[in-house]
Each structure stands twice: as C-alpha cells, then as structure tokens.
Amino acid sequence: MIFHGLPVSKGIAIGRAFVYEPFKPNVTERIIDAAEAAEHTKRLDEVLAAAGKELELLQQKMAGEDPDKVGIFEAHQDILTDTAVIEEILELINKELYAGEYAIETIYENYFRLFSEMDDALMRERCADFRDVKNRMLRLWMQQDTPAALQTAQVGLDAPSIIFAKDLLPSDTAALDRKTIQAFVTETGGYTSHSAIIARSYEIPAILGVEGFMDKVKNGDTVIVDAVEGILILEPSAAEIAQYTVKYQNYKQEREEIKKYRAIEPLTADGERISVCLNIGSASEEELAAAAFTDGSGLFRSEFLFMSGRELPGENEQFQIYKKAAETFGKKQVILRTLDIGGDKSLECMELPKEENPFLGCRALRLCFERPDIFKTQLRAALRAGVYGNLALMFPMVGSLEDLRRAKEFLAASRRELESEKIPCNKNMAIGIMIEIPAIALIADRVAKEVDFASIGTNDLCQYLTATDRMNPGLAPYYQSYHPSMFGLINQVSQAFIKAGKTLSICGEMGGDPAAVPAFIGMGIKKFSMSASGVPVIKRMLTRLTMEGAKKTAAAILNMDTAGEIETYLKQQLSQRMEGEYVRKENGDH
Amino acid sequence: MYAKKTVIINKSGLHARPGSAFVREAKKFVSKITVSKLDGQDNPVQSGDAKSLVKVMSMLLSKDTHIEISAKGEDEHTAVDTLIDLVDSGLNDL
User: Fold this and answer.
1) pLDDT, tens digit, for every residue of A99-124?
2) Strands A275-280 and A231-234: what pairing?
3) Dihedral, CA of residue A376, residue A327, residue B12 and residue A113, to nearest 10
4) Does the interface predicted TM-score (ipTM) exceed 0.95?
5) Is the dihedral of CA A188, A190, A195, A199 positive or negative?
6) What is the distance between the alpha carbons of residues A572 and A430, in angstroms, rounded to a whole number?
7) Which residues contact A508 (CB under 8 A, 6 or more apart)?
8) Measured between beta carbons, which residues in chain B are less than 8 angstroms from residue A115?
9) Interchain CB distance below 8 Å, A85 and B54
C-alpha cells in the first residue's frame, strides 16, 4: 500500500511502526456545588505542583540530552506558573462554580484560540504550548500519574521505530527519545510546522500531510519511509524491502561523502568562480543555517508564508521575515519572488477561483494584478525590508513586456506611498523576472534591457515548452526536462543576457542537477540556486569540471536530437568527471 | 503609584525569550506592576499584569511599541526604574 505526502526532512527508513497516540482529554461542561469549590481549588493546587515537577524533570532530562530543547519546557513552566491565568481558572471554579477540569479546559483553550489567531507567525506558533500545558494538567487532574508521552515513548521505543501520529505537539516530539526514532509520519502539518522543524534539526526523515493511514497501520508493522520522494509504503513486499535497503545504504554513504564539500568555495577545477545560491521558503533558522555556505539566495519563495496560515500575512509580518532573510545573508543578494500562487499551489487563507486549466490560468503575477491589495502589501513589505540588506525582487509568470512594466508600476506606486508616509524603504532595489513562459524567453534580448537580472525556472519552463502538465504522473514521459528545445532556448536566453551584461541564473530543479549544470556553465550561465541539500552536490561536481569541458558538453548537446540522447550523454559525462568518487547509482543508469 | 513611559527597541519585542526575561524580573518585586500599550497619543489601549507572561505576550508588544510601566506598592520606584532600564537595554535582543 503506497501513500504520498510532503517530505519535509530528507532520508530513508525501513523499520517497525510505532503508532503514537497522545493523551486525549475528554472534558464536558459541569457545574459543582458551592461546597465543592474549596475541594476543587485544593485539587488545582496539587495538580499545578505535580505538573511543575514533571516539567522540571523534563527540563533536567533535556539539559543532559539536548540543551536547545530545554526552552520548550521552560515556556510551559512559564505558562503553568502564570498567576494571572491561574486566577482566571480559580475565578471560574469559585465564582461560576465550574468543575476544575472544565475551568482548566476553558481558560487554556481561550488562550490557544487567541494566540492561534494572531498576525505574528512567531506568536501563532506558541498556541500549541497552551494546549500542551492544558493536556498535562488534565491528565494529572484525572489522576493518570505517569507522564503519558514519556511512558509511551519509553515503553514503545525500546527498539528503533518509525513514529506514526495524527499530529505531534511540541512536548510529544521533545519527550520522544530521538535516538530510537527512525522517521516521523503524520497526517497533518506542513513544511514549516513544528514537527517538520524538529525533524530537520535532528535530521530525522519525515513525511507530513499523509492522508488516511492511521487506521491502516498497527504497532510493529514493517514499513518503508522514503522521505526523499515523499512515499510511505505499508506492508512492503520482500522485493520492495530489498530495493529500499540498497537505496538507504546508498543514500547514507552519499550524504556522508558529500557533506565535506558543503563549505568549500565553489570553484571549477580551473579556478572559475561559480555562484552557488540557496532556495529558501520560510526563512526559518534551520533554512538560514545554510546561508553561510552559499553566495546568497537566488530564490526566496514567498508563497510559503501565505500557505502556512489561515489568514493572509500582514505587511509587518512579511516585513519581519524578509528583513530576517536579508540580514542573515548580509551583503549577499537575496532574491525575493513575489507571490506565486495558483496552479499547483492553493491557499488555506484565500479562496481561489476554480479554473479548467489552473497552470494556464490566473496564477502568480496575474493573480496579483487581480488583487492589488495583496500585491501592494507584499511590495511594501519588501521595499521596507530592502533597507536592511541586499534584497532584490523577482516577478513570476511574466509573459510579456506589458506584464513587466505593469508590475514595475505597482512597485513604483508602493514606493511613492512609503515615501509619502516617511517610512524608510529601498529606492534602488534590483528588479528581475522569472523566465518560465516561452513567449518571454523568446524575446530575452528585449527583456534584458528592462530588468537587472532574470532567473530561469526550469520546472515551469519545461511544462509550458513541452505542453505537459507536470502534476500529472501519467504524463511523465512527455515532461522532458532534457528536451533539446529546453537547452536550445536556455542557450538563446543566456546569449541575450551576456550581450546585455545582465545576470542570468537558474533556480529550478535543473539548477541543482549535477548532470545538467555543466551544460549551462558551458552556455555562459554562472549562477545557480538550489536547495540546501543540492549545495554540496554541485560544489563537489564543480571541483571536477573545467570551463573547456563545460563548453564541449554544451556544444555537444546543442547538436543532439532527442531528450534521451542528451540525458545519456550528460550522465555519462558526469560519471566520467566524478570517477573515483562515490556517485549515486541512478546517475549513471540511464 | 509610580509610572514611566518608554519605547521597545529590541527586535522581537516582548515576545518569547525577551518577554520571559521581562516577566522574570517583574516577579522579583512585591508591588503590583502593570504594563500598558500606548497609541500614538500616549493613551493606553491595553493593560496587563507585568508578572504574567501570557498577558504580556497577549498584548503583542513588538519593536517600536510605546509602553508605560506603572507600579503600586512598597518597592514601586525601584520596580518601574529597573524594568524601564531592562526594556531600554534591549533585553539582549538588539
């Protein structure tokens, strides 16, 4: 049985399932006699003391094992000992005569809701802490004395296990003994959720947002988690286990090998400096940790900010996040791509009209033109953040020069607004576009005159160039990213930008593909932006590449007739270059 | 009763860690201490117990917010002065 989900922390695991079910309080509204109120007040004191003791023990445990996570329990301790909150609970018990368990439930849930609705993303993330504290107190109130999270973790995880859960609260993930956790699989949660962040910081493979597995998996079942591709296999066959055992070993060996290359300066074997940049989405600490090893961010996908919340992020919230990214990279350029929503990306906080062909429809810049309020809020936030670093703006889905000029007018209007409000903003922000629509790629010479830079989004360019829906797995053979037209067109764009003296980069999947990058370098492109895991892979390949070799590779493939031919050639070239180094088998297979 | 005004200068405001440090300091005093969030004309728009992290965080006291700290009790002067100095120091979060 195969399930798909969002791989938020890469890796592969084969092992025993452990279905994690946290304590679920069941509280109903209940009124007590005035005479009972004193008893409930006393019980509350006892529960507060017991919960405080548990949290202290957890803090001690964490201080030894993982000092960074002590803060989670300190925050819980702060909430637990908050006198203003305790007073509110006492008031419900003594004045309204609500039963203690219902008073606890009501007050903490109030704060859960209040915080979950805040504009500020950092504050929103704190809401889970209230629920955590509430659950701890209710469990103690109901006299289940052993910390449920700890107990299940210790009892269930005497051997390495793959954790399955509907969702994981911060205290669940912290209390679980991470040395015995092979992987996480949850039904809810996205790339920036707490479980995802924990998984990445511990380098535990994780797939989140997998639907409908909870009633199909039992404790002790053998399962396979491929958090590279986002695949969960329940009841795997012997052949699948054998296949994934090899994949796991290869993956592990390769990760160790390439890690050494992460921090080196990206130079070709003959000393040509290539820019290796980072694709980022949420600007979280974990993501920005790789900033030091790269030459900037060639793609900051701002839509992640819009996808994680129930409400559209406000100007200040966006400003804070853009500023943080700009400050982290310092003098290095950060290219912020304006909202790219529609197509395959939908929003919880905004209803998008249903379309027959969403990829050909009102997405990205087109949607921003329809919703100037959203567009301007983002532009204002970016212009303000531009004061704090080297921030550049990039417009997605530009199909014509009219599109570009119109977007620039929006930007100029937003800048004028800020200036009249006397709010500091960047007056000379570099402006670029994504090249992903063939119509704009074909007039690259004219585009280059009106932008400071451009970046080729190979995923969408391939989809539009080959007229293949990239979300339809059945069409995969037609989605040929090595199609001769792809290389031909990219070469044409590159020559136009070289002539105009403007920077061109590649930020799609192919920008991190060690087989394709040499061909692009041969065409004169010297800037690539990729995920953090791609950085050491590309840097390692560069050490084996000469400019002359790159030019030969480019010249050769530009004369080839089919995608198959090009793919075979590029992969052969890569194997030859990397000879003596460990290269993942599938790179030389085709 | 003793009160003073200031502006929050640290980058994450009185949220999370800086907020905890602020509340921890407030708890060292016996006086009743109140933090108020001020609007552009220095009028209070929201107030809360300075010894309650939950209340302090609920007020969304971010960078550049104008606040007033007031205290009533035997150590009201030291309480307000110490807390104002702490906020002005940037709470190790500049």
Assistant:
1) 999 999 999 999 999 988 887 777 77
2) unpaired
3) 50
4) no
5) positive
6) 39
7) A456, A457, A458, A459, A460, A461, A462
8) 57-58
9) yes
Of residues A424 and A341, more confidence is placed in A424
Q: In what order do the strands lie in the sheet with A12-19?
A: A2-4, A231-234, A222-226, A12-19, A161-165, A181-186, A206-208, A6-9
Restricting to A residues 69-98, those with a Cβ less than 8 Å away from any Cβ of B are 71, 74-75, 78-79, 82-85
pTM of the model: 0.61
| Sheet strand arrangement including B66-72 | B2-7, B66-72, B32-38, B44-49
On whether the CB atoms of residues A550 and A521 are closer than 8 A, the answer is: yes
Surface-to-core class of residue A33, CB atoms within 10 Å of its CB (0-12 exposed, 13-18 middle, 19+ buried): exposed
Across A235-373, the runs of DSSP E, i.e. the strands, are 275-280, 297-301, 334-337
* Banded model confidence at residue A66, pLDDT cuts 50, 70, 90: low
What digits encode the pLDDT tens for the residues A312-346?
A: 888 998 999 999 999 999 999 999 999 988 766 66
d(Cα B10, Cα A34) in Å, to the nearest integer? 48
Q: Dihedral, CA atoms, A461, A464, A465, A466, nearest 10 degrees?
A: 120
Residues A16 and A220: beta-carbon distance below 8 Å: yes
Region at B15 (left for phi over 0; alpha for psi -120 to 50; beta for the rest): beta
Q: Write the single-letter amino acid at A529.
A: S
Q: What residue of A is the nearest CA neighbor of B20?
A: A78
- The answer to whether the Cα torsion of B51, B57, B58, B64 is positive or negative is positive
Chain A residues closer than 8 Å to B48 by CB: 84
Q: What are the residues whose beta carbons fall under 8 Å from the beta carbon of A501, sequence distance 6 or more?
A: none
The DSSP H or E segment spanning A407 is helix A401-420
